[in-house]
């Protein structure tokens, strides 16, 4: 683009043929009413339905809608990375395409950032009544754990709906994260921030693309990418198992001295299971970190750009 817009909206999109038209119908009037220059960066994360066709039709009617398409599915965080890295705006807002995060809060985010000179404005979920009981409880546990790792600067119930200034975007682009988790990276920056509270809505159409398996994967990535605490946990588990072994040895010695030793398999079997389980946990934790080191050494790009309607000559994208 010859002139950088003031505002960029980054929207990861994956198989949203039902939700995308409704999202555009609701989002465009809000952005047109802001009276600022803007772009909407729709990042197609390798959709396999008619979403790419819909995106092309939307672009024909909406010149500010920009298409970035991956050559294969790379995941939500990779799509978010590509959109943030390629956005041109002085302010960048990331939002999903399912309308669970209301786009009506974008003007409030932008106004708050400009009035108070903030680099980050978080969208904080004040009410998650539309989520299931299980989703609310697991989300609460996730944010509790992440606040323990990152600190209280991480807002509770703040997802990927946020506004970033150009300074914050440049700082994120300079970080050598291979698998970034922005829910942790953005608060870690420590830039001046504010919050906008909203009510989380139901998905406008379609089904969730974040099942339990991906939620567990996100939690695991969050912990292992941002903290060495699991390794320390493995150390403490090893020390605890060693202490249990010492106590069992003392108990056996005393029992032998008192002549009350009775051959049995229960204590031996339980002890073997316990020690074996601790060893497997420790090996598994070490494997997670070794796997991330291996992935970082390979230095493979997190995604490949197959098409960018604004910069078609840039064929490939990396996470650098």
Give an overview in words:
The chain has 320 residues and is of the alpha/beta class. The protein folds into two domains: 7-208 and 301-308, Spore Coat Polysaccharide Biosynthesis Protein SpsA, Chain A, CATH 3.90.550.10; 229-298. Helices cover 50% and strands 16% of the residues. It is built from ten helices and eight strands. It has helices at residues 19-32, 51-61, 76-86, 106-116, 133-150, 166-174, 182-189, 212-226, 229-257, 266-298, and strands at residues 7-13, 38-44, 65-70, 91-94, 120-127, 158-165, 193-199, 305-308. It has an eight-stranded mixed β-sheet with strand order 7-5-6-4-1-2-3-8, sandwiched between helices. Helix 2 (51-61) links the parallel strand 2 (38-44) and strand 3 (65-70). Helix 5 runs parallel beside helix 8 and helix 9 (229-257) packs antiparallel against helix 10 (266-298). The longest helix is centred in the last third of the chain and has 33 residues, at 266-298. The radius of gyration is 24 Å and the shape is elongated. It starts with 6 loop residues before the first strand and ends in a 12-residue tail after the last strand. Mean pLDDT is 79; it is low at 313-320.
